[in-house]
């Protein structure tokens, strides 16, 4: 309802997001830069318009770093090399950090409106939409709560609400459901799955630890290897039966098969 | 536990104060010190009751100077902090200079201010404002320079510009710091006003002290000193209360007081 006409019907060939040969290195601490960390190495990723891509991988493999680069936020001090065209810098993307990033001096509803305010949305429209989403996200009644009065899962849902409210064409979500119980998680998954991405020329990149969540929501799942993060599998989720895809994903995540 | 804490925090210092007062009273009486050197506390108390009705205008004058000066200083300090945070060149050119001016204790400037601004309220308000603005400025600038990267990244990740960063993150993040500076400033304000009144003026606690000094009425000076202490305490409590009201998101911190660590 607020997406501008220009984002409608982009050419099918143009990717919404693209990085190629992306390498991110964090210099080590101390004068001699001991312990420099290569977070990502030669990562290629292309996200088409209308596509939902999930990124999975072991903890510390660079998923959040990848999402930051896609959002146009270079982590300070890091060296970033590679080509990134159509990176979601500026006004087309909304990024949700792994830590919720809620502003402690704003109550829940004003926090939810931060993204809308940045996007220059009409105040009344944004307010009405936020209130409706508070209901849908199970946050009704907490409009006036301070962030520190909310539980971890509630804070996450509020941060997701803030990110989705302005209706930006590209959503970059870093483990949005990490702190949720199974049932709330399923409800939020259903909500996310109900977003009409292709119809509005939108795209989503979702970082998650949960293979089943990735299979449920995504059109494509990208598996990153242990640090330094490399793409070890880029799998299109088949429409009919995900059992094979699931096995392939688990194998890519755990090549030695230790956990099986 | 609670009883024990109340005992330590209220009863113990009160008892110590009482012991000091009694010692003072006894010491003065035994040593036959003349009252124009050091009167006993009982006489100070009697004088306090006597002069109390006459002090109304003086207290009002001093409080006006301190209050207005504090407000002006806080506003100027916060505005300057905003400019420093918003424009790097202001920060580079002005901030070192402002810091350098603080090597001059503000009371030293009082004679100049009186020369320029006359004997009325204005020079005192200016002096209090000069004293108050620096702690507010430093606290606010520090708070704005050290905003949580988590918050500024969130705003940037939603497409926020520098203007959004300023209004959504930097300015609100500076408020608790600025209020902390204001609390510090509040403890200086009345003292600065009184010192300015020492030099010139028609009314105010400083004027009262000077008049008492000329008449060797040490008991009156001591009454004024006690009054300055009480007023400063009240002003601090007022600013502290307003600061709490202005930052309702701040969690009530755990009660931790020096000397109460259980270890
Ligand atoms: N600001 C930083 N400074 C230095 N090193 C960093 C920084 N951010 C990330 N790293 C390093 O980069 C690597 C990847 O971090 P990242 O946060 O992208 O991992 P992740 O895949 O999101 O992990 P998790 O699943 O636990 O969230 C880590 O080894 C981390 O130590
Ligand atoms: Mg992460």
UniProtKB/TrEMBL annotation, chain A:
PROSITE patterns, per the entry: ABC_TRANSPORTER_2
Gene Ontology MF annotations: ATP binding; ATP hydrolysis activity
Pfam families: ABC_tran
Sequence ranges assigned to domain ABC transporter in this UniProt record: 17-251
Name of the featured protein: ATP-binding cassette domain-containing protein
Alphabetized SMART domains for the sequence: AAA
Keywords (A to Z) from UniProt: ATP-binding, Nucleotide-binding, Transport
Superkingdom of origin: Bacteria
From TrEMBL, chain B:
A Pfam family reported for this protein in Swiss-Prot or TrEMBL: BPD_transp_1
Primary localization class, coarse: membrane
UniProt-listed SUPFAM superfamilies: MetI-like
Location(s) in or outside the cell: Cell membrane
GO term, biological process aspect, one: transmembrane transport
Segments forming a coiled coil: none
InterPro entries, alphabetized: MetI-like, MetI-like_sf
Topology in the lipid bilayer: Multi-pass membrane protein
Superkingdom of this protein's organism: Bacteria
Bilayer-spanning residue ranges: 68-90, 97-119, 125-145, 188-209, 221-239
Entry keywords, A to Z: Cell membrane, Membrane, Transmembrane, Transmembrane helix, Transport
Positions of the ABC transmembrane type-1 domain: 59-240
One GO cellular component term noted in the UniProt record for this chain: plasma membrane
Family of the protein in this entry: Belongs to the binding-protein-dependent transport system permease family.
Name the UniProt record assigns to this protein: ABC transporter permease
Species: Cellulomonas humilata
Lineage: Bacteria, Bacillati, Actinomycetota, Actinomycetes, Micrococcales
């Amino acid at each position: 309802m607020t997406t501008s006409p220009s984002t409608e019907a982009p050419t099918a060939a143009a990717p919404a997001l693209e990085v190629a040969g992306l390498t991110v290195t964090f210099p080590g601490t101390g004068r001699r830069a001991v312990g420099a960390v290569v977070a990502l190495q030669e990562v290629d990723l292309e996200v088409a318009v209308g596509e939902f891509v999930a990124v999975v991988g072991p903890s510390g493999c660079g998923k959040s770093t990848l999402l930051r680069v896609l959002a146009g936020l270079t982590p300070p001090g890091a060296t970033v090399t590679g080509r990134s065209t159509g990176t979601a810098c500026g006004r087309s993307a909304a990024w949700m950090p792994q830590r919720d990033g809620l502003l402690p001096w704003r109550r829940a509803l004003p926090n939810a409106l931060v993204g809308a305010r940045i996007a220059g949305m009409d105040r009344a429209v944004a307010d009405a939409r936020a209130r409706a989403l508070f209901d849908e996200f199970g946050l009704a009644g907490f409009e006036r709560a301070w962030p520190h009065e909310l539980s971890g899962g509630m804070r996450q849902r509020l941060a997701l609400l803030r990110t989705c409210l302005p209706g930006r064409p590209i959503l970059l979500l870093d483990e949005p459901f990490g702190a949720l119980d199974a049932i709330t998680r399923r409800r939020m998954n259903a909500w996310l799955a109900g977003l009409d991405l292709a119809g509005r020329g939108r795209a989503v990149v979702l970082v998650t630890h949960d293979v089943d969540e990735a299979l449920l929501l995504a059109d494509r799942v990208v598996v990153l290897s242990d640090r330094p993060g490399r793409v070890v599998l880029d799998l299109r989720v088949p429409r009919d039966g995900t059992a094979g895809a699931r096995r392939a994903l688990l194998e890519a995540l755990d090549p030695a098969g230790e956990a099986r | 536990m609670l009883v024990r804490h109340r005992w330590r925090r209220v009863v113990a210092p009160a008892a110590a104060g009482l012991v000091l007062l009694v010692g003072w009273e006894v010491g003065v009486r035994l040593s036959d010190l003349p009252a124009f050197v050091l009167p006993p506390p009982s006489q100070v108390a009697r004088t306090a009751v006597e002069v109390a009705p006459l002090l109304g205008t003086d207290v009002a004058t001093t409080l006006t100077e301190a209050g207005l000066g504090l407000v002006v200083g806080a506003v100027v300090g916060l505005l300057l902090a905003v400019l420093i945070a918003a424009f790097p060149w202001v920060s580079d050119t002005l901030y070192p200079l402002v810091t350098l001016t603080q090597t001059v204790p503000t009371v030293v400037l009082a004679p100049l201010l009186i020369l320029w601004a006359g004997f009325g309220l204005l020079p005192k308000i200016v002096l209090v404002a000069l004293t108050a603005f620096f702690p507010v400025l430093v606290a606010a600038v520090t708070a704005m320079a050290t905003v949580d990267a988590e918050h500024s990244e969130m705003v940037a990740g939603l497409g926020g510009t520098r203007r959004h960063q300023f209004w959504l993150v930097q300015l609100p993040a500076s408020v608790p710091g600025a209020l902390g500076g204001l609390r510090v400033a509040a403890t200086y304000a009345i003292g600065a006003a009184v010192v300015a009144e020492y030099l010139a003026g028609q009314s105010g606690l400083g004027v009262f002290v000077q008049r008492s000094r000329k008449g060797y009425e040490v008991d009156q000076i001591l009454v004024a000193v006690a009054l300055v202490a009480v007023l400063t305490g009240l002003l601090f409590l007022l600013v502290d209360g307003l600061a709490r009201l202005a930052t309702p998101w701040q969690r009530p911190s755990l009660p931790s007081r020096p000397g109460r660590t259980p270890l």
